[in-house]
Design a protein that fits this description.
The complex is a heterodimer of chains A (668) and B (102).
Chain A (H helix, E strand, L loop, with lengths): L6 H18 L8 H28 L4 E12 L2 E10 H24 L6 H20 L3 H19 L6 H32 L4 H4 L19 H17 L8 H4 L5 H10 L4 H8 L1 H4 L3 H22 L5 H21 L3 H28 L17 H15 L5 H18 L5 H29 L18 H9 L10 H16 L10 H6 L16 H28 L10 H7 L4 H48 L6 H21 L2
Antiparallel strand pairs in A: 1-2
Helix pairs in contact in A: 1-2, 1-4, 2-3, 2-4, 3-4, 3-10, 3-15, 3-20, 4-5, 5-6, 6-8, 8-11, 8-13, 10-15, 11-15, 13-14, 13-18, 14-15, 14-17, 14-18, 15-16, 15-17, 15-20, 16-18, 16-20, 17-18, 17-22, 18-22
Chain B lengths: L6 H20 L3 H26 L3 H31 L13
Helix pairs in contact in B: 1-2, 2-3
The chains are: A mainly alpha (668), B mainly alpha (102).
Chain lengths: 668, 102
């Protein structure tokens, strides 16, 4: 069976949706919210169907990859760049996640954004994002990857700053954009080096040459070639910025200023995983640069535990989830750094389900409370929001890693890989350290997510005050209702929001079954395109070790959940900020933002001020002002010559003529 | 027969030229100034012809024709300008036209 490749349609449909919805404003038809909802969701639904068809035919065919060249974009000397799309195992999986989760979030948004004056703008941006993300994962060369990479950054910027009347949202959008540009810069440099080394930018030429061929890259450079290390490290710089890894994680928590479905789609399920995708995509390069792999694993591990520790004490429901996202991305990079790329991608997919689900649940809570995001002002919502509560529990169990939910399998694949690398012959104790970090993070994950659930849904309702910072459209009625009887009229979200949550809850429950150690469908599907055929089986634990790894992972999660239960259900929750230094450190996110402010932002702004004062005002503006003044002063003298009288000029002519004649006469 | 020496012609030419120069410088009526300019041109023509004759060369004649042509064109343009200035300002005193004063 041959591949029925519909990738161009997957790319085109969201673009069409974006163009149609975007142009509605021109025709003054942007008030037709129902039509906008249908177009926005419909285009993604069709794209999902196309992606599913491509995926199904690819999985049933013997073809490794299917390339579609749409046109030849640049031909210059021996540089030739095609606008081409590549359908292989990796991009097919990514396409399914993007369009599938994307579709659910579009549907959810129909309910969530209902009544927002920027409804049409929201859906056009959201469709544009899907287009950019599809371009990113389905491009068949690094240049179009970069274009998609930059466009998703733009979409993220637009959607973080969607409520542009809020100064905090604008500042967050700017921050996200600036930090992402650091990564874009790294990606661009990596592309220059790639071209310099390989003379081409297509994946086919760089990544997928026949392993047997000796002339082919990257085998030709051998292991730990300095250039290869530079390329991979620059690629990882891009990944770290996009996927919010240390030390470039600072933009993601602030990005929560955007609408909650945007946080679910862009800042949890898809865009931030682009870095994980890129490392997997370039795995054949990373495989030849073990030093870079170490950096990936170390940064991933550090980020995982660092972000999880911050998530322990945050009080903003979305920020907890944001730090949790950073932490989970760290897990994925740990897996990739340990060489098990398919585990990274596996965790990417399961994370897309449960994190999108958690964000949706958080959105439903925020929605019904009229924009309240502070968990200290929630509580006892369990009875009023049963659907949200139970889906939230499923998401929480999945992310904590409780069997048999999706997160258990993927997290265990990662932890198992680390353990296998540590215990295998020639294994390094560093992997053991990373395994410990992973386990520690698992404990923290169980704790922070169930702290969130217990504080929001259990106990007594602590709200009542009107929200100081309503999210989006202020639901005035909801506020008035709450003044009378705080919980009485808190109601479940509309079905259009609940339905996607239920679907994702289902996926979070069973979505891990395609990656279990016994039926690793995903892993074997991806083997061909990842790590140049390095055998995934070497990472698999056998026999008793497998069960020990399962048991330890499960224990870690249960320990975290148990402590959370003890602290927030058994005892009356104490939500007052504590004075001790560790708590303050975590509450203030290790003061990273403040440090960056002092070390980077302030000096740059100061330099700008100095430059403004001395270079701009002093040299450039001042110089030109002085020059103009000089010209003016000089001209005052000269302009008296211009009397305007014809006869004066004639006299000057005459005198001149006489002088010339005298010169020639007097010349010897 | 012309005399053996060109002195007389050249003196006449110089006198005419000087009259022209002084006319341009001292008169305020542009028509008179124009006539003075013509006078200068023709003074030059006269000396051209003189030298052409005494040096036995046609170059001088050719220059004379050129100068005549240019003078005719110049008069056309100049008179048109004077007429339109007069129409616009009802006055053609040359010293009143100082709008180009810097």
């Amino acid at each position: 069976m041959s591949v029925f490749d519909l990738t161009p349609l997957v790319l085109l449909l969201p673009l069409l949706g974006f163009l149609i919805i975007g142009s509605l404003r021109v025709f003054n038809a942007h008030e037709h919210t129902e039509a906008i909802g249908w177009i926005g969701c419909g285009s993604i639904a069709l794209a999902f169907i196309c992606a599913a068809i491509s995926f199904a035919t690819l999985i049933n065919s013997l073809t490794q990859a299917h390339d579609t060249t749409i046109w030849n974009w640049v031909v210059s000397g021996n540089l030739s760049i095609n606008f081409g799309l590549r359908l292989d195992a990796l991009s097919a999986v990514m396409l399914l996640v993007i369009t599938g989760v994307g579709f659910l979030i579009h549907v959810y948004s129909v309910g969530y954004m209902h009544g927002d004056p920027g409804y049409w703008r929201y859906f056009s941006f959201l469709n544009f994002f899907i287009f950019a993300m599809v371009l990113l994962v389905s491009a068949d060369n690094f240049l179009f990857l970069l274009i998609g990479w930059a466009l998703v950054g733009l979409a993220s910027y637009l959607l973080i700053g969607f409520w542009y009347q809020r100064p905090t949202a604008v500042a967050a959008a700017k921050k996200a954009f600036v930090v992402n540009v650091i990564g874009d810069f790294g990606l661009m440099l990596a592309i220059f080096l790639l071209y310099n080394r390989f003379g081409t930018l297509s994946y086919g030429g760089i990544l997928f040459t026949d392993p047997g061929a000796t002339t082919a890259a990257p085998q030709a450079f051998g292991v730990n070639d300095p250039m290869l290390i530079a390329i991979t490290l620059l690629l990882f710089l891009a990944c770290a910025a996009k996927s919010a890894q240390l030390p470039l994680h600072v933009w993601l928590p602030d990005a929560m200023e955007g609408p909650t479905p945007v946080s679910a789609l862009i800042h949890a399920a898809t865009m931030v995983t682009a870095g994980v995708y890129l490392v997997a995509r370039a795995s054949n390069l990373f495989q030849y640069a073990p030093v870079s792999l170490w950096v990936v694993a170390a940064i991933g591990g550090a980020t995982a535990i660092f972000a999880a520790s911050i998530a322990l004490v945050q009080n903003d429901i979305k920020r907890i989830l944001a730090y949790s996202t950073i932490s989970q991305l760290g897990y994925m990079f740990m897996a990739e750094g340990a060489g098990n790329y398919s585990a990274g991608i596996f965790h990417l997919t399961t994370h897309a389900y449960f994190k999108a689900l958690l964000f949706m649940c958080a959105g439903a809570v925020i929605h019904t409370l009229g924009g309240e995001q502070d968990i200290r002002k929630m509580g006892g919502l369990r009875q009023r929001l049963p659907w949200t509560y139970w889906t939230f529990i499923i998401g929480g169990l999945a992310i904590a890693g409780i069997v048999p939910f999706a997160g258990f399998w993927s997290k265990d694949a990662i932890l198992g890989t680390l353990l296998a690398r540590a215990t295998a012959a020639g294994g390094s104790p560093w992997y053991l350290a990373l395994y410990a970090v992973g386990l520690g993070t698992a404990i923290l994950t169980g704790f922070y997510i169930f702290r969130l659930i217990f504080v929001v849904f259990h106990g007594a309702y602590r709200g009542g005050e009107p929200a100081p910072q309503p999210e989006g459209q202020v639901d005035v009625q909801a506020r008035q209702r709450r003044r009378g009887n705080p919980l009485a009229r808190v109601h479940e979200a509309p079905w259009i929001m609940l339905a996607p949550m239920v679907v994702l809850a289902g996926l979070s429950t069973v979505g891990g079954l395609y990656g279990t150690p016994w039926f690793d469908t995903l892993g074997s599907f991806l083997t061909g395109v990842l790590g140049n055929g390095f055998n995934v089986a070497t990472f698999a634990l056998q026999g008793a070790a497998l069960w020990i790894s399962f048991g330890v992972g499960l224990l870690a999660a249960l320990l975290g959940i148990g402590v959370a239960w003890f602290m927030y259900v058994r005892r009356a929750p104490s939500l007052r900020p504590m004075g001790n230094i560790v708590y303050q450190l975590l509450l203030h996110k290790y003061w990273i933002d403040e440090i960056y402010d002092w070390v980077i932002v302030k000096p740059i702004v100061g330099m700008g001020r100095l430059a403004n004062r001395f270079v701009e005002d002093g040299a450039l503006d001042g110089g030109s002002r002085r020059l103009a003044w000089l010209v003016g002063k000089t001209s005052v003298g000269f302009r008296t010559v211009q009397s305007g009288y014809v006869r004066n000029y004639a006299l000057v002519f005459l005198v001149g003529a006489i002088l010339i004649i005298l010169y020639y006469v007097a010349r010897p | 027969m012309p005399p053996d020496q060109p002195t007389g012609y050249l003196i006449v030419s110089a006198v005419l030229f000087t009259i022209g120069v002084v006319g341009v410088l001292v008169r305020r009526n542009p028509l008179i100034m124009f006539m003075s300019i013509e006078l200068m041109l023709n003074a030059v023509n006269l000396s051209f012809m003189t030298f052409a004759h005494y040096l036995d060369s046609v170059d001088g004649w050719i220059f004379v024709f050129l100068v005549l042509t240019v003078a005719a064109a110049e008069v056309v343009v100049g008179l048109a300008i004077i007429v339109s200035i007069f129409r616009a300002r009802r006055n053609i005193d040359i010293d009143e036209l100082d709008s180009m004063k810097g």
